[in-house]
Amino acid sequence: MALAKRGLTVVCIDQPTDKQQQSYKVGESLLIFSNAFLRTLGDLDDSLNQSFQKAGFWMAHGLEGRKEFDGSVTEWGFQSKLPERWYDKFNNAFFPRVMFQDSQIVRPEIEAELRERARKMENVTLLDETGLVRDIELGDDDADHLITWVSRNKKKTGEISARWMVDCSGRARLLARKYDHDLPLDEEFRTTAAWAQFSHCTDDLFDERWAYQFPDGDVARRDRNTLHLWGQGYWIWVIRLAGDRVSIGVSYDRGRPPEDGNAREVFWKVLRRYPMLDWLKEENLLEFSAYRDVQHCTDTFVSPRRYAMVGDASSIIDAYYSQGISLSMTVSWHIANIAQRDVQLDTLDLDYLNHVNRAATADWRIMRSMVRSKYSPAIADSRFFILDHLLDLTIFGAAMLGRFRSARWLIETGGRTTAETTEHAQLREGLSRRLFLSQSAPWHRLDPHVVAGAVERWHRSLERRAVWRLENKVELPAVKAGLRAHGAVPAIWKLPLKQRSEHIDITLPAPTSEPEFLQVKGDEHRPVHMAVSGTALLTLASVATLVDIADTQVRRLRGLAGARRRRKSGW
Predict the structure, then answer these.
(1) Is the dihedral of CA 191, 197, 198, 204 positive or negative?
(2) Could you give the angle at which helices 400-413 and 422-434 cross, rounded to 10 degrees?
(3) How far apart are CA 160 and CA 143, in angstroms?
(4) CA atoms of 383 and 388, how far apart (whole Å)
(5) Secondary structure class of 162 (helix, strand, coil)
(6) How far apart are CA 571 and CA 549, in angstroms?
């Protein structure tokens, strides 16, 4: 649909089975860029409004075996709902929905709607009743590619010539396998995921134990967030869906599975560790699925030979943060830019193409580092839990300006370059370089892989200090941090000041008003607080990390001094 809106003629070759079309699949929680693209390019605004409205995301560690989110549970949450006073400032009522209003979707229902919308679009031909790709012959130089298709029952066949091919074949990974584009992964970090959808999950199952109260009296419902529950080497997602349905998943480290058995057995055994999930019943199960080996990545998202790979056909890391759809849609947007210029202007922009490959691969590395450290034993250290998520927030917060500008471009052009003004063309040109996590301000002038490497080292350093504390029996209090769109800064400075407390809440009251220069209207070129959010969060995360380094070093020195005294006294 995005390509067709650029004036390109598109043929989609696919023949999904009834089971594939009805499958719930993973990827139900919209976040960051996925919401914006689906509401605009997919014309799904009404459908997403009718889907389950998510309040934000919520992470917790320590709920295993407990009947409530008590003071021993460490939590990090972010509520994306905007204060009512903000809505009066927006010049376009569509803007806050595209920019901020995320949903949790029922995949087969949304996919069916997208398929029908695409079928009715000019310039789009769906071979979804007759076609499966049988063979591909790449064209030399400027010659078109030749794609041979055959129906599932082998009774129909045909050929299509195309200047560009985009592989959306999912884990079949047709082009990656055919042209050897796999990026080698280390064997130390491999994960398995098992998930299911359940019916009869009504509101009454989520009682007051699921409520969190902010210092100013505002209340967040944890169950209305995309909820992540961490344990040793695993995590659980809880995603409520429309129609009293819920998606539950267990993702775990293959090297140290939390339970014995196959993926389905591990799934149920882990869930039974959580009394607050005792309402999950086998008789209400709608579908169960599992991936034994989740992760893979391509070394090429878009090739100079005029083909590309998106979605699971290119890469997948982990369901954490729901980044798969976001990465797919941003890469697809870049592919549309490259293909359009090549087809309509006869200009294959190799510099842009190489930048997309480097930046998209760097983004994959950044997102993988976000989840890799949390699968380690360090997850049991409350300070690590908070600081590691603060580092993640720094990355996503820095991307807010890119999200704002892409939302503006999508809303005001509808995805059509023919509707661009000079300002829209400038926005698209800037986004072509910076619509990546690894190219957000303030690190946008650095090489994408330099940024990825720095983020990976930062996560590993937080992990090492946390593991040292755990191994040396350093007990830190549980911590709670509840953030909001209008109060996105936690009181990190409380961590070293209240280390002898049983638990700490570093949530701050949200401001009741903002200076006019910080108010967003939705049609600015560079909103102030979005422009500086990356720098501000980077500063906060850096200071918090330095305090963590200093505190841990002091503890080490004290430990060494104590050991010397004991040796001298003959203990």
Answers:
(1) positive
(2) 140
(3) 13
(4) 8
(5) strand
(6) 30
The Cα–Cα gap between 16 and 27 comes to 18
Which residue type sits at 299?
A: D
Please indicate, yes or no, whether the overall pTM of this predicted structure exceeds 0.70. yes
Bond before 442 cis per omega within 30 degrees: yes
Beta-sheet strand order (sheet of 157-162): 132-137, 145-150, 157-162
Show the tokens assigned to 283: 């008789």
Q: What DSSP element (H or E) covers 319?
A: none
Asked whether 375 and 446 are in contact (CB, 8 A), the reply is no
Could you tell me which of 475, 259, 452 has the C-alpha nearest to residue 367? 452
DSSP string, 220-276: EEGGGSEEEEEETTEEEEEEEETTTEEEEEEEEETTS-SSSS-HHHHHHHHHTT-GG
Tell me the per-residue pLDDT of 99-138, one tens digit each, with 9 for 90 and over: 999 999 999 999 999 999 999 999 999 998 778 899 999 9
C-alpha 505/C-alpha 495 separation (Å) is: 9
Q: How far is CA 287 from CA 194, 200, 245, 253, in A?
A: 11, 14, 11, 23
Q: Which has the closest alpha carbon to 488: 394, 387, 405, 388?
A: 394
Structure tokens at 88: 């009066």
Residue among 431, 421, 425 at smallest CA distance from 401:
431
Grouping H, G, I as helix, E, B as strand and the rest as coil, residue 13 is: strand
Q: Give SS3 for 147.
A: strand
Assign residue 208 a region: left if phi > 0, alpha if psi is -120 to 50, beta otherwise? Answer: alpha
Write the DSSP symbol of residue 156: -
Give the contacts of 205 (CB within 8 A, at least 6 positions apart): 279
Kindly state the tokens that stand for 334.
Answer: 């870049």
Separation CA 347–CA 340 (nearest Å): 9
Q: Per-residue DSSP letters for 497-540? A: H-TTSSEEE---PPPS---GGG---S--SS-HHHHHHHHHHHHH
141-183, pLDDT tens digit by residue?
Answer: 889 999 999 988 888 899 999 999 999 999 999 999 999 998 8
